[in-house]
Amino acid sequence: MKISARNVLEGKVQNVIMGAVNAQVTLILAGGEHIVSVITNSSIDSLGLVEGKTAYAIIKANEVIVGKGVDGAKLSARNV
Fold first, then answer.
1. Which residues are within 8 A (CB) of 19 and not within 5 positions of it... i.e. 6 or more apart?
2. Does the model's pTM come out above 0.90?
3. What is the pLDDT of residues 30-39, one digit of tens each?
């Protein structure tokens, strides 16, 4: 697969929590960091995501928030 995104992180699926329409996927990176993503149930099926499978988190640059002095700030972003 060719993509232009530079933020591609490899990890292993820790768990998949299925909901009515979407699922929450937790990916563990080599350094032990966790990435949690919400994707559609149909994407879970088409990607074959199951616990222990290698997968990639692809993060678009415009989805990253950079801040200074945000400790204790009320943010809706989960990626802090």
1. 41
2. no
3. 999 999 999 9
